Amino acid sequence: MTSSASPRAYARILIGFFALMVIVVVWAIDARADDTTTTTSTSTTTTTVPRTPEPAGVGVVDSESGQWWLRDPVSGQSTRFYYGNPGDVPFTGDWNCDGYDTPGLYRQSDGYVYLRNSNTQGAADLKFYFGNPGDIPLAGDFNGDGCDTVSVYRPSESRVFVINRLGSDDAGLGAADSSFVFGDPGDKPFVGDFDYDGIDTVGLHRARTGLVYYRNSNDQGPADHQFLFGDKGDRIVAGDWTADGTFTPGLFRIAQGKFFLRYTNTQGAADEEFLYGGSLMNPVAGVFGDLPGGDAPPPQDKLLVAEFTTYHPCCQSRVTNIHLLADAVDGAVVQPGEKFSINSHVGQRTEAKGYVPAGAIVGGEIVCCDHPANIGGGTSQFTTTLYNAVFWGGYEDIYHKPHSLWFSRYPVGIEATLGYPGPDLVFRNDTLAPVYIDTSYTSGSVTVRLYGNNEGRVVTGYTTGSVSSKDGGTVRVTRTITHPNGAVETQRWAHRYNPMPED
């Protein structure tokens, strides 16, 4: 005797089976959502699914002191900590596969790598060696497994050595997994996921021309894409600045301590730019996660840009005025874009301020000492000194006026007189860093030093023409300013000195 289930029983069995399948599918989706990187496989293909993008930030590292500053891309706040020794090459990567980039150091003298798994001060969590002395570290996920490793670029061979594992316990990693030639001598490497496929590849920056080019695979061949971005001497990083999944270039202009970020891999101006760091710092980039912030940003440069000294006989009444004016200007700070005027800063020179009568040019003659212009006479000595510092520092000359008579204690043509309310000396700080004016003097000299960052300008100048105190004469002054990107400014002034009146 045989038995058979009823149609209703078969329906219950089918409903239960489909319910079980729904539970399994939902569980699989939840598990997949928990992963930062997921790999799906078939019998013939493997596809890497990139993690959900987050905006990348930048940072700078003072390689002399080992100080790191990381900048939050949203708030702009800074987090500072110490990590590394002088001369170490800094970089960042996701060493523990948690989706966030933390510090790495490469000691080029011996090929040692030091990796830390948090953006805080402390010892290395991993230490090993890979490569040869002089190699440049490349941090990235070169096989799409969601974890970064440290490969190297060997400039002497223009060769990339890729390795897809990290070391530990001071041990060597052994041979690279693969290598290929890419680029020309002098090109600087960087790493990024330029096509949002979850695999990092190598790009190169030709700093002398601003050429950016990269491959979308880690093997030998011509560049898949190239474009121009930046100026000569810029240092390059790459990051996903807009969290759209694609890495694009960022430049750090060391002469300005300024970042320039481009949002697409195309030629054009920066989409975002901001000051951050100084000329002695190295740039880094990455997704840093939650940073505590609250620290002061990295200091801007305060370099000696220009220094000039003029000399005079000691012990004259005019020396008192020179020293008073130098004291009044000492410590002045000219912010980026601001003008500095001696008359606006100091005001009229008066006896109430301590200035005394001394010789001055009035109506083309040297007179002393019953004219109002005699109060504060001699201060053109300081004005000429400041003007020369401005001239040779490459700052913008708004207004100056040479003397009507020439005095041998001043450079021919490159000098300036002062009166109140005029003539005046006015210059503009046309850089991105503040200008700090430092003055000092002795009984027979006065010195002006300008501190700041003139952005790498190289200044040359010369005077043509013939002049003497007795006969006067016409001179022409030429100043040439060469910028790091090769741009050249040439400025010219002409001035006629009158003959010195006879006694």
Describe this protein's structure.
The chain is mostly beta strands. Helices cover 12% and strands 36% of the residues. The protein has helices at residues 7-34, 317-329, 342-346, 380-393, and strands at residues 38-41, 46-49, 57-62, 67-71, 78-82, 89-93, 102-107, 112-115, 126-129, 136-140, 149-154, 159-162, 171-172, 178-181, 188-192, 201-206, 211-214, 225-228, 235-239, 248-253, 258-261, 272-275, 281-286, 303-311, 333-334, 339-341, 360-362, 365-367, 396-399, 426-428, 435-442, 445-452, 458-465, 473-482, 488-497. The strands form 10 sheets. It has a 5-stranded mixed β-sheet, with no helix packed on it. A 4-stranded antiparallel β-sheet has the order 5-4-3-23, with no helix packed on it. The protein starts with 6 loop residues before the first helix and ends in a 6-residue tail after the last strand.
Short overview:
A five-stranded mixed sheet has the order 6-7-8-9-13, with no helix packed on it. A four-stranded antiparallel sheet has the order 5-4-3-23, with no helix packed on it. By secondary structure, the protein is mainly β.
Write the layout of secondary structure elements.
Blueprint: H1 7-34, E1 38-41, E2 46-49, E3 57-62, E4 67-71, E5 78-82, E6 89-93, E7 102-107, E8 112-115, E9 126-129, E10 136-140, E11 149-154, E12 159-162, E13 171-172, E14 178-181, E15 188-192, E16 201-206, E17 211-214, E18 225-228, E19 235-239, E20 248-253, E21 258-261, E22 272-275, E23 281-286, E24 303-311, H2 317-329, E25 333-334, E26 339-341, H3 342-346, E27 360-362, E28 365-367, H4 380-393, E29 396-399, E30 426-428, E31 435-442, E32 445-452, E33 458-465, E34 473-482, E35 488-497
